[in-house]
Amino acid sequence: QKEVEQNSGPLSVPEGAIASLNCTYSDRGSQSFFWYRQYSGKSPELIMFIYSNGDKEDGRFTAQLNKASQYVSLLIRDSQPSDSATYLCAVISFQGAQKLVFGQGTRLTINP
Amino acid sequence: DTAVSQTPKYLVTQMGNDKSIKCEQNLGHDTMYWYKQDSKKFLKIMFSYNNKELIINETVPNRFSPKSPDKAHLNLHINSLELGDSAVYFCASSQDAWAAGGKDTEAFFGQGTRLTVV
Asked: Is A34 in Cβ contact with B42 (below 8 Å)?
């Protein structure tokens, strides 16, 4: 079982709609969760982090965490073409040495 | 001012050669990392250093040798390059090591080095 799993997509969403990205993780001891965005040919950049169960909102982005279900999600409201990118879920895992483990990423395309 | 910079950006070399990638961060962070991103975009940790001390070595072949002369620099030397080493290598840094948890474990990435072994 992979430590962090995401649907690799591609996920296509019309402009202005809500994009929903999902992630599950295997380490029940994980406490810190991150969403990174990576444009093609560029480096990952952090867009959201969440540590507590529930929702965390930042502008058009909402991260949701459910530790009981070991599930993290990212919602993007009013999707824009500039949101087209690969979204990487990352979790600080305590399996073995503590480390930041990434999922395989979900490629998101916003269609004008 | 670039926060995490790595050189070179592109590296094309023949099998069997030895090459190095350099990384420097000017954020004053204590922890630095090397990640490898394969053709499927999967980003995997290779090494982590905290204040020049190796804290993570993730079952990477010993042809890969990181070196941290000071906490602002982390270089990666690769011996006897193989076709399978072709990937994008990212350097990153964070204020705290992951054991600390919290926002200060946010990783800032360099622009990546695309290594192609022919």
From this structure: no
* Residue B47 token pair: 């090494």
Element (H, E) at A62: strand A61-66
**Residue-wise pLDDT tens digits, B1-52:** 669 999 999 999 999 999 999 999 999 998 899 999 998 888 999 998 888 8
Question: How many other C-beta atoms lie within 10 A of the C-beta of residue B71?
Answer: 18
Number of H helices, E strands in chain B: 0, 11
Contact A45, B109 (CB under 8 A): yes
Token output for B20: 């190095």
Residue B56 pLDDT: 81
Torsion of CA A37, A31, B110, B92, to 10 degrees: -170
A-B contacts (CB, under 8 Å): 58
In 3D, which of B95, B60, B107 has the Cα closest to residue A43? B107
Rounded Cα–Cα distance for residues A93 and A96 (Å): 8
* pLDDT at position B103: 61
Return the residue of A nearest to B99 by Cα.
A98
Q: List CB contacts of A77: < 8 A, sequence separation 6 or more.
A: A18, A60, A61, A62
